[in-house]
């Protein structure tokens, strides 16, 4: 369906409107894409893709363009509208994945499943199968997820903290052997110096993140972004006040959680409750 146009003749679709404004501002100034790229220090191909609506870039790029064109806040506001468009989930997730790869520390809260960075192959396969994947696509997604885990085992890995709802540890896989492997992996991984695992028990009751699976990404330079996810969609939060509000909620939940040492004991106790494979 073609994008709607307003009385101005410009699109009311957030992504198309952003692209139109970028192209209009550049052409009114009489700049080529190459000149724009040279002036701002980015590859000119990025601006070409933004003007064609193939990407919306980052908030840093939008801010730089606002400064360049003397339109303080205008392009950034249009960028935020484009980023919030519910049809742009894949683009937001690609942006999140890039930021995750750049982060110096990661803080996570899990509502119902283990974070992807701590999953075993068997656990990842079971989750993705339950989500409807099969065949080559299932294999590709499992390999991609396990490949991401290597970021925590690099020569200079980010600090990673995860707080797990007790529901995460009380929801076993159908295959007891794979569930045992996952819990054993969680115990072993939690002993690494750059990884901290904590659990929030059921008796804590409702809290500020009860329904919110959240990952915070602290980036070089001190800026923090957050990825807030449900089972079927996710939102990349980069506006500072919203991120700060989420961080306060996270801090409150961390105060309610078991210590890392007590969490380790809790996971081991849960592991001991897993039925043994009768064939062993």
TrEMBL record:
Q: Which residues form the HTH cro/C1-type domain?
A: 22-75
**Gene Ontology molecular functions:** DNA binding
Could you tell me the superkingdom of the organism this chain comes from? Bacteria
One Pfam entry name: HTH_31
List the PROSITE patterns: HTH_CROC1 (PS50943)
Matching entries from SMART domains are given as:
HTH_XRE
Q: Does the keyword Zinc apply?
A: no
Q: Which UniProt keywords apply?
A: DNA-binding
Which Gene3D superfamilies does the record match to this protein? lambda repressor-like DNA-binding domains
Name of the protein this chain belongs to: DNA-binding protein
Q: From which lineage does this chain's organism come?
A: Bacteria, Bacillati, Actinomycetota, Actinomycetes, Kitasatosporales
């Amino acid at each position: 369906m073609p994008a709607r146009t307003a009385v101005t003749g410009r699109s009311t679709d957030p992504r198309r409107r952003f692209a139109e404004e970028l192209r209009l501002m550049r052409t009114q100034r009489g700049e080529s894409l190459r000149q724009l790229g040279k002036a701002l220090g980015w590859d000119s191909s990025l601006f070409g893709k933004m003007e064609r609506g193939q990407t919306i870039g980052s908030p840093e790029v939008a801010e730089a363009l606002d400064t360049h064109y003397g339109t303080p806040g205008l392009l950034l506001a249009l960028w935020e509208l484009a980023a919030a468009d519910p049809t742009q989930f894949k683009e937001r997730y690609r942006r999140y994945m890039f930021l995750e790869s750049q982060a110096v520390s990661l803080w996570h809260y899990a509502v119902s499943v283990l974070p992807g960075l701590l999953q075993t192959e068997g656990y990842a396969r079971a989750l993705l199968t339950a989500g409807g994947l099969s065949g080559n696509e299932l294999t590709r997604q499992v390999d991609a997820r396990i490949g991401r885990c290597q970021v925590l085992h690099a020569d200079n890995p980010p600090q990673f903290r995860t707080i797990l709802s007790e529901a995460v540890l009380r929801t076993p896989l159908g295959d007891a052997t794979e569930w045992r492997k996952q819990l054993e992996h969680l115990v072993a991984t939690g002993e690494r110096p750059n990884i901290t695992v904590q659990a929030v028990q059921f008796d804590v009751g409702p809290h500020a993140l009860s329904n919110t699976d959240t990952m915070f990404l602290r980036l070089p330079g001190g800026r923090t972004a957050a990825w807030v996810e449900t089972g079927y969609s996710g939102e990349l939060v980069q506006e500072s006040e919203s991120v700060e509000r989420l961080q306060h909620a996270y801090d409150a939940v961390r105060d309610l959680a078991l210590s890392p040492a007590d969490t380790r004991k809790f996971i081991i106790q849960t592991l001991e409750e897993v039925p043994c494979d009768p064939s062993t």
